[in-house]
């Protein structure tokens, strides 16, 4: 195993990944055949693609498996929602340590240009109508992503609030039962609609949404800046500078990988 593999997939991350993807034993009744490429090497190669932004064909041979093998493993794990499950496992570890702060959560979105089109793309109103997609996210008070989603770029931000809040998984707490509802949710003027305020109140979530034409977004920014910082953290995975994946599930997979890496960095501090 190379040093690059150990650096991209440290032992702590590998242990968590094994809780999601147990070892696979390949049995060939006829015998023979090549030995199956290691999961750790394939995972390191996938993380390299996500963080460096290179194409699959540009994957260096230092990892061992060919780029075709790595891509097939990525597609297989994406169909099985491995990245969302890994993200949830890491969130559980953070919650058990008390590192998740539910007192003030924030919601926001960011639009990306879709280089190849595909499902969940649409004309981006902020990019002269060029095809694009949008990443929606909710973070805790520290900026750790706890719920993610994707849509076409022309979908209004307000339509993503309810699915994102419902999509928060039940996360372990240091004391008491699992938790999946923030105490307060901060949002910008794109979410200023009476039905969203009523929906949040009905679920016991206090809201702090900027009101159109009444208040400035500057005061709200005292607490919303954390989600803006998380957006920049997501951009640290260069594969998310644009949407290069034609398949929506692959684009969502890279978003999940980026979120899992962000949370894992906090876990290892």
Automatic annotation (TrEMBL):
<dbReference type="GO" id="GO:0004803">
    <property type="term" value="F:transposase activity"/>
</dbReference>
<protein>
    <submittedName>
        <fullName>IS5 family transposase</fullName>
    </submittedName>
</protein>
<dbReference type="Pfam" id="PF01609">
    <property type="entry name" value="DDE_Tnp_1"/>
</dbReference>
<dbReference type="GO" id="GO:0006313">
    <property type="term" value="P:DNA transposition"/>
</dbReference>
<keyword id="KW-0614">Plasmid</keyword>
<feature type="domain" description="Insertion element IS402-like">
    <location>
        <begin position="10"/>
        <end position="87"/>
    </location>
</feature>
<dbReference type="Pfam" id="PF13340">
    <property type="entry name" value="DUF4096"/>
</dbReference>
<dbReference type="InterPro" id="IPR002559">
    <property type="entry name" value="Transposase_11"/>
</dbReference>
<dbReference type="InterPro" id="IPR025161">
    <property type="entry name" value="IS402-like_dom"/>
</dbReference>
<feature type="domain" description="Transposase IS4-like">
    <location>
        <begin position="105"/>
        <end position="262"/>
    </location>
</feature>
<dbReference type="GO" id="GO:0003677">
    <property type="term" value="F:DNA binding"/>
</dbReference>
